[in-house]
Amino acid sequence: MRVAVFGTGYVGLVTGTCLAEVGHRVTCVDIDRDKIEGLKQGRIPIYEPGLEPMVLANHAAGRLDFDTDAEAVVARADVLMIAVGTPPDEDGSADLSHVLAVARTIGRSLSRPAVVANKSTVPVGTADRVRAAIAAELAARGVAVEFEVVSNPEFLKEGAAVNDCMRPDRIIVGSRNPRAVETMKRLYAPFNRSHERVVVMDERSAELTKYAANAMLATKISFMNEMANIAERVGADIEMVRLGIGSDPRIGYHFIYPGAGYGGSCFPKDVQALERTARQHGYRARILDAVEAVNAEQKSKMFELLARHYGGEAGLRGKVVAVWGLAFKPNTDDMREAPSRTLLAQLWAAGARVRAYDPEAMTEARRLFGGREDLVLCDSPEAALAGADALALVTEWKAFWSPDFALLARALGDKVIVDGRNLYPPDEVEAAGLAYYGIGRGRSLRRGVTDA
Ligand code: UDX
């Protein structure tokens, strides 16, 4: 089939590439000329494991191409995918201007029957707005072309996006039109071999499914962070509690890791947008409100632990803190809404200096914070320790999993570690002569520095 994918961000580029990989003829369209030129020359604008070789191979094989000329691409395509961003606007609602701009572009160029599939995360009711925008352009041209709008949300995770896309656990097709559903099933047939993964539903349910999935996952995390905060105060270890509850299959082990708060491009904006949608429909989503509030506080947790160790924020003045991990999670260079950013801002405000290292996010960190005198970007985990008083582990990259604690004890002036992901065995760290603070591990209580 011939597929046009609008938007070459995470979703668009990964989806387009995976569709080409299984044999479709895909053109990725973007208004950003530099990005399209770069892609044609094999420059991949994002770091995503496994993506680059797949883009290069499919481009070389002639199945994957890149273009800025929407009109020519629309004229050839059977399926038109909208995969542009829906950033939050001032009040936290999803900004649909990019999605609707693509819809109008499609309406201005459509000349043969096609299915328009919306992959962007969009509020309930957007399929109707996309349909109306395309119809208005067609009417203005005085042409009648058959088209259907399908809601087809994606569920890929950054850092595992290629795998998620090649091996989806479900494919949501939101449409009440049997022919459009048939087209989507043909498109996804190569991903749907071993068992039926396509779930067909109406557009609005499909749109809400995406928000509900992300909101549920964000809720699990905020719930665990809340339990961790209770554990800390009562002297329990949340890691034991996690194992204890995860063994119940109704709860499960996935996505119940307490930490420095969730970040990234999806959870924060989607929880907010769903909360706004609910409010616009006269309902106050109290669980979503709480999920957001707990997360906002959790992002200050690492700083709080450090400040407590130093007897208050003033104690951090002039200290040097090594920060391991800047990306919002491992295997990505993405720092959007990353907990590291909150920690850095709070350390700087307290007059501390930072030596930071991340395996992939250094370019992004330089773009965001380059030129600051209170930040040294280092080229290895060890380099970040040089001259540091304390260590804050923010992102659980593999490179940080098993440090030599004796070496850490020698390197760190004040011999203190704040482990924002509960990676390290507290007893081992303390045996090496370091003070250890994790998230919800009851240690600060034992040390008498909790405010409980
Ligand atoms: C998420 C959804 O998982 C994906 O299905 C959707 O399509 C887009 O949003 P992503 O933002 O890439 O994907 O990251 P994810 O792996 O879900 O992690 C989100 C955040 O939650 C990270 O900051 C991570 O550190 C945090 N997290 C995750 C926890 O704090 N604890 C956990 O147990 C799991």
UniProtKB/TrEMBL annotation:
Pfam families attached to this UniProt entry: UDPG_MGDP_dh (PF00984), UDPG_MGDP_dh_C (PF03720), UDPG_MGDP_dh_N (PF03721)
Keyword Thylakoid attached: no
InterPro entries: 6-PGluconate_DH-like_C_sf (IPR008927), NAD(P)-bd_dom_sf (IPR036291), UDP-Glc/GDP-Man (IPR017476), UDP-Glc/GDP-Man_DH_C (IPR014027), UDP-Glc/GDP-Man_DH_C_sf (IPR036220), UDP-Glc/GDP-Man_DH_dimer (IPR014026), UDP-Glc/GDP-Man_DH_N (IPR001732), UDPglc_DH_bac (IPR028357)
Protein name: UDP-glucose 6-dehydrogenase
Role noted for this protein: Catalyzes the conversion of UDP-glucose into UDP-glucuronate, one of the precursors of teichuronic acid.
E.C. number: 1.1.1.22
Pathway(s) where this gene product acts: Nucleotide-sugar biosynthesis; UDP-alpha-D-glucuronate biosynthesis; UDP-alpha-D-glucuronate from UDP-alpha-D-glucose: step 1/1
Top enzyme category: oxidoreductase
Residues holding substrate: F155, L156, K157, E158, K210, F255, I256, Y257, P258, G259, G263, K329
